[in-house]
């Protein structure tokens, strides 16, 4: 698949409210020829993902603003602005916003495809529908994050 160069400013890209976060899509599966997806995500101060496993894609996260606590495997690490995390597929992981204010991250998946999950009608409809949809995208929800 032939891809074309393009550029987006910081305030450009399709934005959706999904899974309790504001997600701005910077690169879709189609735009990258299936190589990766890239999102800028803004989370409220009380946000937490479930502990989950991606079976199809690796995840890279760069913290643009705020404080987060990342969990993967049996490890827990604190992240501040400028922190970077790489989470290979098959590793249980998740994070929570740990500061008093919102957090913003760049979130990339390799290969692409996660964009189709987060923009799917089930995910946009409700959290319970999103959890059901996750299995179709080879994401296993394990439960809440450790305390």
Q: How is this structure best described in words?
A:
This protein has helices at residues 114-118, 121-125, 127-136, and strands spanning 14-18, 21-27, 37-43, 51-54, 58-65, 68-72, 75-79, 84-87, 93-97, 103-110, 139-143. The chain has a six-stranded antiparallel beta sheet. Strand 6 and strand 7 form a beta hairpin. The radius of gyration is 15 Å and the shape is globular. The chain is mainly beta and 147 residues long. The protein has a single domain (14-138), classed as Sandwich (Jelly Rolls), CATH 2.60.120. It is built from three helices and eleven strands; from the N terminus they run E-E-E-E-E-E-E-E-E-E-H-H-H-E. It starts with 13 loop residues before the first strand and ends with a strand.
Secondary structure layout plus pairing:
Layout: E1 14-18, E2 21-27, E3 37-43, E4 51-54, E5 58-65, E6 68-72, E7 75-79, E8 84-87, E9 93-97, E10 103-110, H1 114-118, H2 121-125, H3 127-136, E11 139-143
Structure at a glance:
With 147 residues, the chain is mainly β. It has three helices and eleven strands. It is 14% helix and 43% strand.
Note the main attributes of this structure:
Jelly Rolls; mainly beta; globular; 11 strands
The CATH superfamily is known as Jelly Rolls
Q: What is the averaged pLDDT score? A: 89
Tell me the fraction of residues in β-strands, as a range. 35-45%
Helix and strand element order: EEEEEEEEEEHHHE
**Major β-sheet, in short?**
6 strands, antiparallel
| Anisotropy-based shape | globular
CATH topology: Jelly Rolls
Unreliable spans are none
Q: With helices defined by DSSP (H or I, 4 residues minimum), what is the helix count? A: 3
Number of domains: 1
Alpha-carbon distance between the termini? 45 Å
Q: CATH top level?
A: Mainly Beta
Radius of gyration: 15 Å
Q: How many strand segments?
A: 11
The CATH architecture name reads Sandwich
